[in-house]
Amino acid sequence: EPPAGGPGAPAPAAGAPREPGLLGWWRRRVARTQARWEDVLHASPVARTRLIAKVVTIHVRYACGYLAAGYLVSAPIQLAFRREEQALSAIGHSLVLGLLFALPFVLLIPLTKIDWARMRLPEFKNLELNLTWWATVGAGAMLALAWGLQVFDRDSAWARLVEPRVAWLNLVLMFLAWARVKFDTFLFRDFYALAPDDDTLVLLRSTRAPRPVAGAPADAQTEPAKAEPAQDGTAPAEAGPPEPAPPAVPPADAPPPPP
Predict the structure, then answer these.
(1) What gap in Å lies between CA 79 and CA 211, rounded to an integer?
(2) Residue 49 pLDDT > 70, yes or no?
(3) Among the four residues 57, 129, 131, 235, which has the most C-beta atoms within 10 Å?
(4) For 168-177, what is each residue's pLDDT tens digit?
(5) Which residues, in sequence order, are CB contacts of 50 under 8 Å at separation 6+?
(6) Cα separation of 129 and 173, whole Å?
(7) What local confidence, expressed as pLDDT, does residue 223 receive?
(8) Is 243 helix (H, G, I), strand (E, B) or coil?
């Protein structure tokens, strides 16, 4: 039998009551996470550590990519339309921060290779939702850092580089990117819903048994039966090449063949 909550576990009944409130939402989220990581929890320590490290690296790389795009492209465009003093210095600081975030995005390419061709659209959309959320968290951390530097170390070079208005603008941009994907998954809920054996990173699929093909006969989805040994203990005879069919004999009253 499949493990409780695992990929092969039966889905709860459609009419089952859902526990209301924040606690119920948290328990449902924990149950979904446990079901998704069931294979990882039962893997060897080396394989588990390697897989978790790759998942974290993928999230770090693409979150830095979103932040780099915000600081390099979106924020300078928004600042250019504002007729404010020191706008050029703010754009320059934004470009420097964008280059700093682009550095890990480029360096982590060899460690974050994914077979994107195997991903289904719901898997990719939910992965994009997770990545934009962590990019929003990173932008919020940059805003907190900017405010902290303005309070405790206002005259430092880092305080001049990480400006609060640039960090706030990038936070708004990252939040809007996350909200756009979230709106798509909410508007097309059935289309972007994940199946029980889906994986947003295509890392666990090779460790799971393939799903039976709908409409295929049962004998086509099972292995061929092996030959059983004879009752006297001798090994079963191996199947050889088929014997040739005997030549057809024409009947006696058949007409002779044409010349």
Answers:
(1) 52
(2) yes
(3) 131
(4) 989 999 999 9
(5) none
(6) 14
(7) 45
(8) coil
Least confident interval from 32-36, 114-118, 184-188: 32-36
The model's pTM is: 0.65
Neighbours of 124 (CB within 10 A): 14
Alpha helices in 108-163 (DSSP H): 121-152, 157-161
Pick from 104, 3, 121: nearest CA to 62: 104
* Rounded Cα distance, 197 and 112, in Å: 22
Distance separating alpha carbons of residues 150 and 25, to the nearest angstrom: 38
What are φ and ψ of residue 3, in 5° steps? -65, 150
* Sequence letter at residue 197: D
Strand ranges for the chain from DSSP E: none
Stretch among 81-90, 100-109, 167-176, 188-197 having the lowest mean pLDDT: 81-90
Query: Is the pLDDT assigned to residue 21 strictly greater than 50?
Result: yes
Structural contact between residues 143 and 171, judged by C-beta atoms closer than 8 angstroms? yes
Amino acid present at 8: G
Q: How confident is the model at residue 133 (pLDDT cuts 50, 70, 90)?
A: very high
Burial of 218 (C-beta count, 10 Å sphere; 0-12/13-18/19+): exposed
| Residue 87, token pair as written in the block | 């706008």
Q: What angle do CA 50, 53, 54 make, to 5 degrees?
A: 85
Of 12, 20, 104, 31, the C-alpha closest to 63 is: 104
